[in-house]
Amino acid sequence: MRQDDAYIHVTKVYDGGVHMDLFKNTMVSAMDKSLDGLWKRQEVISQNIANFETPGYKRKYVSFEDDLKSALESKVASKNETISKIDGTRVSTEEDETATMRLDGNGVDLEQENIDMVRTSYQYMYSQRVLSDHFSRLRCAISEGQRS
Amino acid sequence: MAFLNSLNIAGSGLTASRLRMDVISENIANYSTTKTEDGGPYRRKSVVYEAVEDKSFGSILKDRLNGDQTTAGVQVSEIVEDPSDFNYVYNPTHPDADENGYVAMPNVDVTQEMLDMMSVTRVYDMNINALNAMKGMAARALEIGR
Fold first, then answer.
1. B49 to A131: CB separation less than 8 angstroms, yes or no
2. Complex ipTM value
3. Closest CA to B16 of B139, B120, B131
Protein backbone atom coordinates (compact mmCIF):
# COMPACT_ATOMS: atom_id res chain seq x y z
CA MET A 1 0.00 0.00 0.00
CA ARG A 2 2.62 2.49 1.12
CA GLN A 3 5.46 0.57 -0.48
CA ASP A 4 5.94 2.93 -3.39
CA ASP A 5 9.43 3.95 -4.36
CA ALA A 6 9.28 7.44 -2.89
CA TYR A 7 8.28 6.07 0.49
CA ILE A 8 11.10 3.53 0.50
CA HIS A 9 13.57 6.18 -0.58
CA VAL A 10 12.56 8.56 2.18
CA THR A 11 12.23 6.14 5.05
CA LYS A 12 15.10 3.72 4.50
CA VAL A 13 18.35 4.94 5.93
CA TYR A 14 21.75 3.39 5.42
CA ASP A 15 22.89 2.04 8.76
CA GLY A 16 26.25 0.23 8.81
CA GLY A 17 25.61 -1.72 5.64
CA VAL A 18 22.04 -2.68 6.63
CA HIS A 19 18.96 -0.98 5.25
CA MET A 20 16.82 0.05 8.20
CA ASP A 21 13.26 1.29 8.00
CA LEU A 22 12.59 4.07 10.49
CA PHE A 23 8.82 3.87 10.31
CA LYS A 24 8.39 0.16 9.95
CA ASN A 25 9.75 -1.87 12.82
CA THR A 26 8.27 -4.69 14.87
CA MET A 27 6.80 -2.39 17.48
CA VAL A 28 5.20 0.02 15.01
CA SER A 29 3.72 -2.89 13.04
CA ALA A 30 2.36 -4.55 16.17
CA MET A 31 0.80 -1.31 17.41
CA ASP A 32 -0.59 -0.61 13.95
CA LYS A 33 -2.26 -4.01 13.96
CA SER A 34 -3.49 -3.55 17.50
CA LEU A 35 -5.11 -0.21 16.62
CA ASP A 36 -6.77 -1.80 13.57
CA GLY A 37 -8.04 -4.72 15.61
CA LEU A 38 -9.33 -2.52 18.44
CA TRP A 39 -11.13 -0.27 15.96
CA LYS A 40 -12.81 -3.28 14.42
CA ARG A 41 -13.74 -4.52 17.91
CA GLN A 42 -15.34 -1.18 18.76
CA GLU A 43 -17.28 -1.35 15.49
CA VAL A 44 -18.57 -4.80 16.36
CA ILE A 45 -19.51 -3.67 19.89
CA SER A 46 -21.51 -0.80 18.32
CA GLN A 47 -23.19 -3.36 16.10
CA ASN A 48 -24.08 -5.53 19.11
CA ILE A 49 -25.50 -2.56 21.00
CA ALA A 50 -27.48 -1.36 17.97
CA ASN A 51 -28.98 -4.84 17.69
CA PHE A 52 -29.83 -5.18 21.37
CA GLU A 53 -33.51 -5.55 20.49
CA THR A 54 -33.23 -7.55 17.27
CA PRO A 55 -34.83 -10.97 17.82
CA GLY A 56 -32.49 -13.89 17.20
CA TYR A 57 -29.40 -11.70 16.87
CA LYS A 58 -26.26 -13.35 18.23
CA ARG A 59 -23.49 -11.23 19.70
CA LYS A 60 -20.35 -10.94 17.60
CA TYR A 61 -16.80 -10.64 18.84
CA VAL A 62 -13.42 -9.79 17.38
CA SER A 63 -10.25 -11.73 18.07
CA PHE A 64 -6.76 -10.86 16.95
CA GLU A 65 -4.58 -10.81 20.07
CA ASP A 66 -3.67 -14.51 20.05
CA ASP A 67 -2.69 -14.36 16.39
CA LEU A 68 -0.67 -11.21 16.99
CA LYS A 69 1.04 -12.75 20.02
CA SER A 70 2.10 -15.85 18.11
CA ALA A 71 3.36 -13.64 15.25
CA LEU A 72 5.46 -11.66 17.71
CA GLU A 73 6.81 -14.78 19.39
CA SER A 74 7.52 -16.69 16.18
CA LYS A 75 11.13 -17.65 15.72
CA VAL A 76 12.09 -16.49 12.25
CA ALA A 77 15.42 -15.55 10.73
CA SER A 78 14.98 -11.85 10.06
CA LYS A 79 13.13 -8.92 11.50
CA ASN A 80 11.45 -8.30 8.15
CA GLU A 81 9.88 -11.74 8.32
CA THR A 82 8.47 -10.99 11.78
CA ILE A 83 7.08 -7.73 10.45
CA SER A 84 5.40 -9.41 7.50
CA LYS A 85 3.99 -12.04 9.87
CA ILE A 86 2.57 -9.28 12.06
CA ASP A 87 1.12 -7.48 9.03
CA GLY A 88 -0.48 -10.76 7.97
CA THR A 89 -2.28 -11.21 11.29
CA ARG A 90 -5.99 -11.73 10.79
CA VAL A 91 -8.57 -9.64 12.57
CA SER A 92 -11.47 -12.04 12.61
CA THR A 93 -15.08 -11.44 13.56
CA GLU A 94 -16.98 -14.40 14.90
CA GLU A 95 -20.47 -15.06 16.15
CA ASP A 96 -21.12 -16.28 19.67
CA GLU A 97 -23.76 -18.95 19.00
CA THR A 98 -24.04 -20.11 22.59
CA ALA A 99 -24.90 -16.84 24.27
CA THR A 100 -28.64 -16.57 24.77
CA MET A 101 -30.02 -14.84 27.78
CA ARG A 102 -33.48 -13.89 26.62
CA LEU A 103 -36.62 -15.44 25.26
CA ASP A 104 -36.29 -13.74 21.87
CA GLY A 105 -33.00 -15.57 21.21
CA ASN A 106 -30.96 -12.38 21.36
CA GLY A 107 -27.53 -12.92 22.88
CA VAL A 108 -26.43 -9.36 23.65
CA ASP A 109 -25.58 -8.46 27.25
CA LEU A 110 -25.77 -4.67 27.40
CA GLU A 111 -23.63 -4.36 30.54
CA GLN A 112 -20.94 -6.64 29.15
CA GLU A 113 -20.85 -4.66 25.90
CA ASN A 114 -20.54 -1.45 27.89
CA ILE A 115 -17.56 -2.80 29.81
CA ASP A 116 -15.95 -4.09 26.62
CA MET A 117 -16.48 -0.70 25.02
CA VAL A 118 -14.67 1.12 27.82
CA ARG A 119 -11.87 -1.45 27.85
CA THR A 120 -11.41 -1.20 24.08
CA SER A 121 -11.30 2.60 24.29
CA TYR A 122 -8.56 2.46 26.90
CA GLN A 123 -6.57 -0.19 25.08
CA TYR A 124 -6.75 1.99 21.99
CA MET A 125 -5.49 4.91 24.03
CA TYR A 126 -2.55 2.87 25.35
CA SER A 127 -1.54 1.67 21.88
CA GLN A 128 -1.87 5.18 20.55
CA ARG A 129 0.36 6.50 23.35
CA VAL A 130 3.04 3.90 22.65
CA LEU A 131 3.07 4.86 18.96
CA SER A 132 3.12 8.58 19.76
CA ASP A 133 6.00 8.13 22.17
CA HIS A 134 7.94 6.24 19.53
CA PHE A 135 7.52 9.09 17.06
CA SER A 136 8.41 11.61 19.78
CA ARG A 137 11.68 9.77 20.36
CA LEU A 138 12.37 9.81 16.63
CA ARG A 139 11.69 13.53 16.52
CA CYS A 140 13.93 14.04 19.53
CA ALA A 141 16.75 12.21 17.76
CA ILE A 142 16.22 14.16 14.52
CA SER A 143 16.34 17.50 16.32
CA GLU A 144 19.32 16.36 18.43
CA GLY A 145 17.29 16.61 21.59
CA GLN A 146 16.65 20.32 21.26
CA ARG A 147 12.92 19.88 21.01
CA SER A 148 11.05 16.86 22.14
CA MET B 1 -16.16 -0.01 5.74
CA ALA B 2 -14.53 3.39 5.83
CA PHE B 3 -13.18 4.93 8.99
CA LEU B 4 -15.97 7.29 9.98
CA ASN B 5 -18.71 5.12 8.49
CA SER B 6 -18.36 3.15 11.71
CA LEU B 7 -20.29 5.94 13.39
CA ASN B 8 -23.24 4.99 11.18
CA ILE B 9 -23.61 1.73 13.10
CA ALA B 10 -24.43 3.54 16.33
CA GLY B 11 -26.40 6.06 14.25
CA SER B 12 -28.62 3.33 12.87
CA GLY B 13 -29.25 2.17 16.44
CA LEU B 14 -30.31 5.70 17.38
CA THR B 15 -32.65 5.98 14.39
CA ALA B 16 -34.23 2.60 15.13
CA SER B 17 -34.72 3.46 18.82
CA ARG B 18 -36.31 6.78 17.92
CA LEU B 19 -38.75 5.10 15.53
CA ARG B 20 -39.65 2.60 18.25
CA MET B 21 -40.20 5.50 20.64
CA ASP B 22 -42.51 7.13 18.06
CA VAL B 23 -44.52 3.94 17.79
CA ILE B 24 -44.80 3.66 21.59
CA SER B 25 -46.00 7.28 21.76
CA GLU B 26 -48.58 6.50 19.09
CA ASN B 27 -49.81 3.52 21.10
CA ILE B 28 -50.18 5.60 24.26
CA ALA B 29 -51.83 8.47 22.39
CA ASN B 30 -54.37 6.05 20.95
CA TYR B 31 -55.11 4.35 24.24
CA SER B 32 -58.84 4.93 23.89
CA THR B 33 -59.28 5.38 20.14
CA THR B 34 -62.29 3.37 19.02
CA LYS B 35 -62.49 4.61 15.43
CA THR B 36 -59.72 4.12 12.86
CA GLU B 37 -59.51 4.33 9.08
CA ASP B 38 -59.91 0.55 8.81
CA GLY B 39 -62.92 0.70 11.10
CA GLY B 40 -62.86 -0.79 14.57
CA PRO B 41 -60.65 0.22 17.45
CA TYR B 42 -56.95 1.03 17.26
CA ARG B 43 -54.58 -1.95 17.35
CA ARG B 44 -51.33 -1.75 19.28
CA LYS B 45 -48.35 -1.46 16.94
CA SER B 46 -44.82 -2.72 17.49
CA VAL B 47 -41.63 -2.55 15.45
CA VAL B 48 -39.54 -5.45 14.18
CA TYR B 49 -35.79 -4.94 14.13
CA GLU B 50 -33.37 -6.70 11.85
CA ALA B 51 -29.58 -6.63 11.62
CA VAL B 52 -28.28 -5.13 8.37
CA GLU B 53 -25.29 -6.35 6.45
CA ASP B 54 -23.18 -4.01 4.38
CA LYS B 55 -23.98 -4.99 0.78
CA SER B 56 -21.47 -2.74 -0.98
CA PHE B 57 -19.00 -4.36 -3.39
CA GLY B 58 -15.96 -3.22 -1.42
CA SER B 59 -17.30 -4.63 1.80
CA ILE B 60 -18.21 -8.01 0.31
CA LEU B 61 -14.81 -8.27 -1.39
CA LYS B 62 -13.08 -7.49 1.89
CA ASP B 63 -15.12 -10.11 3.67
CA ARG B 64 -14.32 -12.78 1.14
CA LEU B 65 -10.62 -11.93 1.41
CA ASN B 66 -10.47 -11.78 5.20
CA GLY B 67 -13.28 -14.19 5.98
CA ASP B 68 -14.92 -12.04 8.61
CA GLN B 69 -18.41 -10.66 8.82
CA THR B 70 -19.72 -7.28 7.87
CA THR B 71 -21.14 -4.86 10.35
CA ALA B 72 -23.65 -2.25 9.31
CA GLY B 73 -26.03 -1.72 12.19
CA VAL B 74 -29.72 -2.27 12.59
CA GLN B 75 -32.91 -1.24 10.84
CA VAL B 76 -36.63 -1.50 11.37
CA SER B 77 -37.87 -4.08 8.88
CA GLU B 78 -41.58 -3.58 9.52
CA ILE B 79 -44.17 -2.20 11.89
CA VAL B 80 -46.64 -4.91 12.83
CA GLU B 81 -50.01 -4.80 14.54
CA ASP B 82 -50.65 -6.78 17.68
CA PRO B 83 -53.32 -9.40 16.81
CA SER B 84 -54.36 -9.96 20.43
CA ASP B 85 -57.99 -9.41 21.53
CA PHE B 86 -59.46 -6.01 22.24
CA ASN B 87 -60.43 -5.05 25.76
CA TYR B 88 -64.20 -5.03 26.13
CA VAL B 89 -65.54 -2.37 28.47
CA TYR B 90 -69.20 -2.08 29.51
CA ASN B 91 -70.36 1.41 28.53
CA PRO B 92 -73.82 1.47 26.89
CA THR B 93 -73.74 5.24 26.40
CA HIS B 94 -70.67 5.07 24.14
CA PRO B 95 -71.56 5.61 20.45
CA ASP B 96 -69.45 2.55 19.46
CA ALA B 97 -71.07 0.22 21.97
CA ASP B 98 -72.52 -3.04 20.59
CA GLU B 99 -76.08 -4.25 21.24
CA ASN B 100 -75.02 -5.65 24.66
CA GLY B 101 -73.52 -2.30 25.70
CA TYR B 102 -69.88 -3.37 25.39
CA VAL B 103 -67.26 -1.18 23.69
CA ALA B 104 -64.17 -2.70 22.08
CA MET B 105 -61.22 -0.69 23.36
CA PRO B 106 -57.70 -0.86 21.86
CA ASN B 107 -55.44 -3.69 23.03
CA VAL B 108 -52.91 -1.20 24.39
CA ASP B 109 -51.47 -1.91 27.83
CA VAL B 110 -50.06 1.32 29.21
CA THR B 111 -47.84 -0.44 31.74
CA GLN B 112 -46.32 -2.46 28.95
CA GLU B 113 -45.77 0.68 26.88
CA MET B 114 -44.10 2.46 29.79
CA LEU B 115 -41.77 -0.50 30.30
CA ASP B 116 -40.93 -0.52 26.60
CA MET B 117 -40.28 3.20 26.77
CA MET B 118 -37.80 2.73 29.61
CA SER B 119 -35.95 0.00 27.76
CA VAL B 120 -35.81 2.08 24.56
CA THR B 121 -34.39 5.02 26.51
CA ARG B 122 -31.69 2.77 27.93
CA VAL B 123 -30.79 1.39 24.51
CA TYR B 124 -30.73 4.91 23.08
CA ASP B 125 -28.30 5.98 25.84
CA MET B 126 -26.10 2.98 25.15
CA ASN B 127 -25.99 3.82 21.44
CA ILE B 128 -24.94 7.36 22.32
CA ASN B 129 -22.21 5.89 24.55
CA ALA B 130 -21.00 3.71 21.68
CA LEU B 131 -21.00 6.73 19.36
CA ASN B 132 -18.98 8.78 21.85
CA ALA B 133 -16.51 5.95 22.40
CA MET B 134 -15.85 5.66 18.66
CA LYS B 135 -15.63 9.41 18.32
CA GLY B 136 -13.08 9.53 21.12
CA MET B 137 -11.02 6.80 19.51
CA ALA B 138 -11.06 8.57 16.15
CA ALA B 139 -9.95 11.80 17.85
CA ARG B 140 -7.14 9.98 19.63
CA ALA B 141 -5.96 8.40 16.39
CA LEU B 142 -5.31 11.95 15.18
CA GLU B 143 -2.92 12.45 18.08
CA ILE B 144 -0.48 9.83 16.81
CA GLY B 145 2.83 11.52 16.04
CA ARG B 146 1.80 14.80 17.56
1. no
2. 0.77
3. B120
